[in-house]
TrEMBL record:
<keyword id="KW-0472">Membrane</keyword>
<feature type="transmembrane region" description="Helical">
    <location>
        <begin position="155"/>
        <end position="177"/>
    </location>
</feature>
<feature type="transmembrane region" description="Helical">
    <location>
        <begin position="54"/>
        <end position="73"/>
    </location>
</feature>
<feature type="transmembrane region" description="Helical">
    <location>
        <begin position="94"/>
        <end position="112"/>
    </location>
</feature>
<dbReference type="InterPro" id="IPR019402">
    <property type="entry name" value="CWH43_N"/>
</dbReference>
<dbReference type="GO" id="GO:0005764">
    <property type="term" value="C:lysosome"/>
</dbReference>
<comment type="similarity">
    <text>Belongs to the DRAM/TMEM150 family.</text>
</comment>
<keyword id="KW-0812">Transmembrane</keyword>
<keyword id="KW-1133">Transmembrane helix</keyword>
<feature type="transmembrane region" description="Helical">
    <location>
        <begin position="197"/>
        <end position="220"/>
    </location>
</feature>
<feature type="transmembrane region" description="Helical">
    <location>
        <begin position="124"/>
        <end position="143"/>
    </location>
</feature>
<feature type="domain" description="CWH43-like N-terminal">
    <location>
        <begin position="8"/>
        <end position="224"/>
    </location>
</feature>
<dbReference type="GO" id="GO:0010506">
    <property type="term" value="P:regulation of autophagy"/>
</dbReference>
<dbReference type="GO" id="GO:0012505">
    <property type="term" value="C:endomembrane system"/>
</dbReference>
<dbReference type="InterPro" id="IPR050911">
    <property type="entry name" value="DRAM/TMEM150_Autophagy_Mod"/>
</dbReference>
<protein>
    <submittedName>
        <fullName>DRAM1 protein</fullName>
    </submittedName>
</protein>
<dbReference type="Pfam" id="PF10277">
    <property type="entry name" value="Frag1"/>
</dbReference>
Amino acid sequence: MLCCMPGVAFVPALLVSWSSAAFIISYAIAVLAGHVEPFVPYISDTGTKPPESGVFGFMINISALLASITMYIRYLLIEKQNESSHFVRSSCNMFTLCVGLMGCTGMGIVATFQELAVPSVHDIGALVAFGSGVVYITLQSIISYKSCPRWNTYFVCHIRMAISVISCIAFIPMIVFASKISMTRIDWTPGEKDYTYHFMSAICEWTVAFGFIFFFLTFIRDFQ
């Protein structure tokens, strides 16, 4: 199916399907192995211990690469459209790409440095990945509105902005609740100290992560 897609639409399609599989597969392995509780663990919790850590690291690194390629193609697409429409400054387009690539670098750090092995480096990578990702999709939403109605429909723009707003709203409590957790662990059980903070932060983290996935899903039509 991916090979039959016109243009380069297979790139964001592959990114979305691969990233979704990375989250789901590592989660399934971690739960079946008894390493995490099935009810809303952190994404990183599902890739901390072997064997899921190897699967998680490999697949997330590939996701980071696919995301980088998708962002670069998006940059080139906007540059080409901008030649005739002049709806955005080239410097703004380049800045948006750099922010996106910074987020991909953060993903690579998260995949390489496990949560329990090097927690400080892992947390920095996660902050860069999620923070840069939220900024990137917000800037892309603004650029999309500027390109209307020639290059985008307002319906698609509204969807992108809605995803951006939800991701931004979820990102803030994700950081706030995570900062209140006094210990680094993956085997959380309801009722223990800091569990509520962990639970709320984890929900927000999954919301932001799948917000990114749904946002890149909207690129498929553009890339055709």
